[in-house]
Design brief:
Layout: H1 2-11, H2 13-31, H3 40-52, H4 54-64, E1 69-70, H5 71-74, E2 83-84, H6 86-104, H7 109-112, H8 115-132, H9 137-161, H10 165-192, H11 212-230, H12 237-255, H13 260-278, H14 282-298, H15 300-309, H16 318-323, H17 332-350, H18 361-364, H19 392-423, H20 429-447, H21 457-477
Antiparallel strand pairs: 1-2
């Protein structure tokens, strides 16, 4: 026995020596109430895992994303914030990606030169330029760096991963189980703490989601995609039953999120789905849409008067909560959005070209508030929230080109999605998934008129991941005849 231990130590002496040394140093550190040292083995493990298999490491991050918690939840007095543990891992992915690009230079140029990639380059360059001109450069450059590490993991690396069709499904399946955990936690909060109400929905998903609106946006994005997975006939019947059970859980969670914008966005996606399936010609849609705009413009006064007569506030009663969507007279949530948008437009008027700097709206909008537009949830310091729009926010922060960049991304993503759908083989997985992903993105882009979450890891993982899947389909899969495919 002693000879075995002696030989084992000689063979792995460096491992055992370093382990003993680490335990000794850790003991001294803990005794002196210095606890950060104990995380070093975990850091080394993550670095090793990322170098060993970057694809699997990205999927691991995708799994962790719904479960991430803001650093300020544990240390509210710090002057900065990160999502734990995803954003530190995303920074590691960024560094390894940069190292490999410089060293290997073997990234597929078709992905790098895709039209959507060019739009993203434009956005990044413009964010960089406006960050230099920012009223708060530190905030703006932090915004830029976080956008870059989101894009590297969830768009550029994901695109390369999605050359294999099975990786698209795995990406979604890595996100879903963790999101189900969050849903169970949220619904348990409703039941155990007596929060089964519209008011309770705001904080039920905390600390995983800051409020119910971001939670609802993610649920709305997932529902069309899970429905698409359920329509893939190559899955076994028991597995498809499981998928539809998950679909039901997501729908229940969305209902009890009390997120009106998410309800609207999902309804709009359902309407688009029906239009596509009925194969209504584009000319008829364009004529109907144009006629509707003419009618709305002609009767704008009457419509505005009718809206102002609606005094139904947000409510735990679903019918009344839906009715409150059009209340621009007394509903605090709706009025606060209008207040934020008006502030953004006033900020744009002062700096129409470069804006106030990416990520700075929440720090700069307070002086632009007008007293008669404030609500009971407004703050004099203007220190609570953002512009509540993925389009108006960039207008205030990065000027006219900031908003145009976002609009271009929306148009291009939807165009590529529908292009892939119409060119893919009928009833194929690519055809089904491309439509599901496009509708999922559509829910977010519609929701984006009322809220903005693209600066968060939870929304970025899905938005950029969905776009990456569509680009990969466009480059690798849309026009090829699918061979017999197994479910990996």
């Amino acid at each position: 026995m002693l000879s075995f231990l002696r030989n084992e130590f000689r063979t792995h002496r460096w491992v055992y020596s370093l382990t003993i040394l680490f335990i000794a140093i850790s003991s001294i550190m803990v005794a002196n109430e210095v606890f950060w040292f104990v995380i070093i083995p975990f850091v080394l493990f993550f670095v090793y895992a990322a170098f060993k298999s970057l694809d699997k490491f990205v999927l691991f991050i995708v799994f962790l994303t719904p479960l991430s918690v803001p650093l300020e939840y544990y240390a509210p007095s710090l002057g900065f914030n990160l999502q734990l543990i995803t954003e530190p891992l995303l920074i590691l992915v960024l560094l390894i990606f940069a190292y490999r690009i410089l060293l290997e230079r073997n990234f597929d140029r078709r992905l790098l030169t895709h039209p959507i990639s060019w739009i993203i380059y434009f956005q990044l360059v413009w964010i960089f330029i406006t960050a230099i001109m920012s009223s708060m450069p530190v905030v703006s450059f932090k915004f830029l760096t976080s956008r870059i590490w989101f894009l590297v993991a969830f768009y550029f690396l994901a695109m390369a991963m999605f050359q294999k069709k099975a990786m698209m499904r795995r990406y979604i399946w890595m996100y879903l189980p963790a999101m189900i955990i969050v849903i169970i936690y949220t619904l348990a909060n409703f039941i155990q703490k007596g929060l089964f109400s519209q008011k309770g929905a705001h904080l039920a998903a905390s600390p995983f989601f800051k409020d119910h609106t971001s939670y609802g946006a993610i649920l709305a994005m997932l529902i069309p995609v899970v429905a698409g997975l359920g329509m893939i006939k190559k899955y076994t019947v028991p597995f498809r039953i499981l998928i539809w059970m998950i679909f039901g859980v997501l729908c229940i969670a969305l209902v009890f999120s009390y997120t009106r914008a998410a309800w609207i966005s999902l309804f709009a996606a359902a309407v688009v789905f029906v239009i596509i399936k009925l194969r209504i010609p584009f000319k008829i849609l364009a004529f109907t849409g144009g006629l509707a705009l003419v009618i709305l413009f002609s009767y704008r006064g009457e419509i505005l008067m009718k809206l102002e007569q609606n005094r139904q506030d947000s409510s735990k009663d679903f019918a009344k909560h839906i009715e409150s969507i059009s209340n621009i007279r007394t509903d605090a949530s709706n009025l606060e959005r209008i207040n934020r948008w008006n502030c953004a437009f006033r900020m744009y008027e002062q700096r129409p070209f470069v804006g106030w700097g990416p990520g700075t709206y929440m720090f700069q909008y307070a002086p632009f508030q007008v007293s008669n537009e404030k609500t009971i949830i407004s703050t004099n310091m203007g220190d609570w929230g953002n512009a509540h729009s993925e389009y108006i926010g960039p207008l205030a922060e990065s000027g006219i080109f900031g908003m145009l960049g976002m609009i271009a991304l929306v148009i291009a993503s939807l165009y590529i999605g529908f292009k892939v759908y119409y060119t893919a083989k009928p009833y194929s997985q690519i055809r089904i998934l491309s439509l599901a992903l496009t509708l999922g993105l559509l829910t977010y882009f519609i929701h984006g008129t009322l809220n903005n979450f693209l600066d968060t890891d939870k929304a970025s993982a899905l938005v950029w991941g969905y776009i990456a899947m569509l680009v990969a389909m466009d480059v690798y899969h849309s026009k090829q005849v699918e061979e017999k495919d197994t479910i990996e």
